[in-house]
Amino acid sequence: MIVPPLFSPIPPAIHPRHADVEVRTTAWAEAHRIGSDELRRRLVRHAIGSFAARVMPAGREEVVQLMADFVLWLFGVDDGCCEEGDLGRRPGDLAETLHRLLRVAQNPEVPLMLDDPLADGLRDLRARVDGYGTAGQAARWVSHLREYFFSVVWEASHRGAGTVPGLSDYTLMRLYDGATTVVFPLLEMAHGYELQPHERDHRAVRAAEEMASFVITWDNDILSDHKERGAGGYFLNVLRVLEEGGLTAGEAMSTAIAQRDRVLTAFVRLSDHLSAAGSPQMRQYMAGLRSFVRGSQDWGISSVRYTTPDDPAGLPVAFTDTPTDDSREPLPIEAVSWWWGVVPPGPSPVERLVATRPGRARLVGTA
Fold first, then answer.
1. How confident is the model at residue 361 (pLDDT cuts 50, 70, 90)?
2. Total structural domains in the chain?
């Protein structure tokens, strides 16, 4: 199925040292033996270093490197344990393994999984998180890793039973099983600041984070659908969930795109408001969330992980500045409909500024 150009009002960017990051991530994967030899050979071709460089285009290079290595490690867990391995169909056994890995993340000195490559890589990642961030940021990184582990066990229960969740449950699962929340503390580390609790814990900030996660994971589902269907066997994405609900493949695609467009327009309005009303650190954090959204989009349409050159996917090569759905009404998804209650009515500060200018730029293309 052909994926049309997706709406993206966020300009692209990439860190100038992206090529160096890519080389070092390949070396890190080999040094820690992440995944099987076959999986590792695939992962190092997926331009994961460039992904991190797009998410943190102006970040500290050492934190960009940390994110790249961490994302490759996550794929070692997700692809190696959850989707392609036997553990991905045995939620109880998967929970055991992930609980031990969580203990390694909490306390790297514990003598658990000493000969396990994933545990070895995780110990290295935790040491670098401690080195580049504060104690609070490290604690939140571990807490978000717990959320990710918890959600992939939920997904494994569906994979083992061959079932498909309803849309609200799938949305709730997807907010965490994409591991987007584990990246949030790294966005702060990349620029050497830490949000204060009164800002970080505000409901509107959490809504903006969840909106960003929704758009990133919906885009991933849309752009990876060809790869997952081509692989055969069980797969789970929003298109399959919508088709299980009675939509045709074409209707599911249009619906999923409209859903992410509506959320993205709300995210832009909310992040504009938070940037205008918040501290300098809040402005930087909202800019980081935007880069995370756009960097994921640019990587998604360019990485061989999703373009699958041997069986080319019909992915777009650019983006559009026109949403298919910019309604200000909440999506009819129970788990997330509360977001719209914290989006201020009326135009955002940026929208008011743009409205005073003669014409507007078209933000398309990739970095």
1. very low
2. 1
